[in-house]
Amino acid sequence: MAPGHKHLLNTPQTLVVDSLKGLVTLNPSIKLDEGQRVIYTPPSKPRVALLSGGGSGHEPAHAGFVGAGLLDAAVCGNIFASPNVAQVRRGLELVTREKGALIVVMNYTGDALHFGLAAEQHRSTGKPGDVRVLLVGDDVAVSREQGTIVGRRGLAGTILVYKIASALSDAGADLDAVESVGKYVCSRLGTLGVGLEHCHVPGTRAGESHLEANQLELGMGIHNEPGTSKLELTTVADLVDTILTKITDTADKERAYVPFKNDGSDEVVLLVNDLGAVSELELGGITNEAVKWLQSKKITVRRVFAGTYMTSLNMPGFSLTLLLLPSKSDSSAPYSSAQILEYLDAPASAPGWKWTSASEPGVVGAKVEEAAVPKKGQEVALKTTDSKEFLAAIVRACKALIAAEPELTEQDQIAGDGDAGLTLEAGAKAIIKAIDGGKLKGENVIEDIGVIAEIVEDDMGGTSGALYSIFFAGLGKALRDAATSGATSTTPEVWSKASASALTTLYKYTRARPPSRTLVDPLEAFIESLPSKGLNGAAEDAHAAAEKTKELVAKAGRGAYVNQEDLKKREVPDPGAWGIWRIVDGLRGFEA
């Protein structure tokens, strides 16, 4: 049996909220919106708000870093599960003001989609303050070939991004500057972790150990994802050598993400992170060996941070992060080493932030408190050229999906996890119900598209719901912009431009691009053809693109994990792509 399967708690179901209440008890300057599980500090001065969040189980990240000098809010999901969009929206409402907000989250699909959708919804409402999303990917265990679509995973280096971006925000910088420094730091981060065993999630059955007594795993993720290799348990010195060599090695083109020169001029910040069950005694030894190794390679260590920053519950393991500082000889660098260090050294009082010396190492020998929510911007309207036909087209599209449920389910049982048909059917039925109940009136398409975005978010769920919601949120914003620019009704040109803009919004949060055997294949084909071929011709192009997915190798989505040769032999289209075809077929005149 794997170790660490016993826990101290009331119930697994209340553990996250119980923990957040304890955090607020510890630090009365932070507040808790218990219903949406948002830890925040009420705004006291104009600044770019910093938000983060994700699944719980990584404590002190992310809630423990809410406080002066760091995050303004953290949105907490269940253990290892992304928070939902409503939670993220609440976090934005509580802390976003005129200077806007930067959401900094680790690069995982659920977080990217849900935080991204919340950002788009906030922007589409016309509320004060722009909102942007920065995804942090610092894991060097993920090769470029593996991460072609999804990119690198986010790990403990994310904490350094929080700290630096927040310090610049405190200095009065605008959103562009805060986002820019965050992106720059992300481009110079490398992290690699090692674990002696997987962690155990409270409330789940205790599993068997997958490692021998003398083994450890290199490159493990923080959600029990398998590592890249199993190694024999060895000394800390050997482990540190293995990890730091991989982070600094520029000869390995698959993992050389950080531009080290390795010529004696490199300067770094070192972060030594406990993954949950490493003792302070052991962590001190790891820190000592890491600094020794870097100094032996003539890499100057300008700052050292060591402690528990981002855990994987009770995982016995640690990670090392290097932030490569700007080179003194690089005149094109947007920041100097002194500036980055100044931001890191700036005061911070969040409970999770550890004491630091702010100098180079020596040579080694309760109650919810509501915040005022900004008022909505002035409402704008955009009429349809024919409100009855507009609603009729939506109903036809929904009925087409409902009729297609059996075939979509059958396709997804082969090419995915079997729920595509039921997911799309649920969204379609909810939209028809909204039309019957008068929630969609066909009088103002901006409002109607917003209602549809909310429905698919609430009633579809999962990745599909997030993707559709992001698209409709982008469509609503584009229509709002068209109305603001003087459009009074939805002409074919307005629909074409708005759809293209919505696709661009969607592409901010998914790396899937045609041909990828996903729903973007027919969606892009339809949108690109719409201006020149009209609805009918564009629908035919969408159909062709959906059919083509039978022959494609999946590059993204659940199909990427299925035997590709088997999919080709069975000539199964991607169910998500087929669902898009059924929708556009309905729009142009499908009759059940």
UniProtKB/TrEMBL annotation:
<dbReference type="GO" id="GO:0050354">
    <property type="term" value="F:triokinase activity"/>
</dbReference>
<dbReference type="InterPro" id="IPR004007">
    <property type="entry name" value="DhaL_dom"/>
</dbReference>
<protein>
    <submittedName>
        <fullName>Dihydroxyacetone kinase</fullName>
    </submittedName>
</protein>
<dbReference type="GO" id="GO:0005524">
    <property type="term" value="F:ATP binding"/>
</dbReference>
<comment type="pathway">
    <text>Polyol metabolism; glycerol fermentation; glycerone phosphate from glycerol (oxidative route): step 2/2.</text>
</comment>
<comment type="function">
    <text>Catalyzes both the phosphorylation of dihydroxyacetone and of glyceraldehyde.</text>
</comment>
<comment type="similarity">
    <text>Belongs to the dihydroxyacetone kinase (DAK) family.</text>
</comment>
<keyword id="KW-0319">Glycerol metabolism</keyword>
<keyword id="KW-0418">Kinase</keyword>
<dbReference type="Pfam" id="PF02733">
    <property type="entry name" value="Dak1"/>
</dbReference>
<keyword id="KW-0067">ATP-binding</keyword>
<dbReference type="GO" id="GO:0019588">
    <property type="term" value="P:anaerobic glycerol catabolic process"/>
</dbReference>
<dbReference type="GO" id="GO:0004371">
    <property type="term" value="F:glycerone kinase activity"/>
</dbReference>
<dbReference type="Pfam" id="PF02734">
    <property type="entry name" value="Dak2"/>
</dbReference>
<keyword id="KW-0547">Nucleotide-binding</keyword>
<dbReference type="InterPro" id="IPR004006">
    <property type="entry name" value="DhaK_dom"/>
</dbReference>
<dbReference type="InterPro" id="IPR012734">
    <property type="entry name" value="DhaK_ATP"/>
</dbReference>
<keyword id="KW-0808">Transferase</keyword>
<dbReference type="InterPro" id="IPR050861">
    <property type="entry name" value="Dihydroxyacetone_Kinase"/>
</dbReference>
<dbReference type="GO" id="GO:0005829">
    <property type="term" value="C:cytosol"/>
</dbReference>
<dbReference type="InterPro" id="IPR036117">
    <property type="entry name" value="DhaL_dom_sf"/>
</dbReference>
